[in-house]
Amino acid sequence: MTKQHKITLSASRDIPFNKLVLSPSNVRRIKAGVSIEELAEDIARRTLLSSITVRPVLDETGAETGMFEIPAGGRRYRALELLVKQKRLARTAPVPCIVRTDGLAEEDSLEALKDYFGGALAYQDVVIALMQGPETDYGRAETLCRHLFGRVRRCHRVTVEQMALLEPAAAEVIAGSVAGVLRAATDEVVRRGVPEEAARAFMLGHIRIILAVLFDQTGFPVSDAAKIAFQIGEEYVIRPDWKRVFEPEIVRRTIERMVHPR
Q: Hey, is 117 helix, strand or coil?
């Protein structure tokens, strides 16, 4: 029997309205049935019935500024803004919010989720290694990365050796080859008669779910049946010694072949 993990909910807190700003990723392309004016009247009558998901706004050094941006929930923000303009709500009135500092917000917009490379609408983290030069160069590198890569949530520092484990070993050798197998599996079921749109929708949806579960984003483990399926996949698809790709000599040879292909 699978042990059930305790689910941790995001903490809720009251944040003054004048400390909230809309995120550029907060874009609704489907017109809702209720107008901002009607929503404002509903809030005035029944108060705000659900908390707004927010993220801390960070400065160039990664420190919190005291402001919070709203990746989704913009209509509720606009309704509150209208009440403030009408002087029916104080600019410093507390607004119930759920503060997220990592992972995806529950309500991140579809546009942000489709920002696959990050930095335009979606937040991203950056991993940096100082290969040479004085320690002050690392600070310059972090500042450059925050400007270069746009919407950076935080920067993580690793050694050069750790960077090589991440890339190419983990991100390209492992993740790239596994992603290639996923695409090949999708193409294979299409070849065997599954409609292409159905296959792509099914696979992309399940990949998202499996990744969320395995990377501890859901609060619960995979099912016992799924574990059996994973074991079968390992027997047929994955070599028993696949972790050798992280050995220093294999990493070195990998980088050499990538830089100097024959």
A: coil
